[in-house]
Amino acid sequence: MLWPMLWPMLAIALAFCGIAVLGVLAARVFVEVRRLARQVATSSQRITRAAEDLERAATPLAAQTAHTLRQDG
């Protein structure tokens, strides 16, 4: 008398396997998103440092240019 219960049991087993696969894939996506977030944060810090370095380097040049323009004008 296993036949009447075979298809519902098979459907439940397949549904469980499908949910398990989705769970594993969701965990992998979560790990990759965290890794990407760390890389974005690191890149943002590097860009901020580079912008600050550029501003520090450009300040004396801008002051020198302004002084030169005032002398010429």
TrEMBL record:
<protein>
    <recommendedName>
        <fullName>DUF948 domain-containing protein</fullName>
    </recommendedName>
</protein>
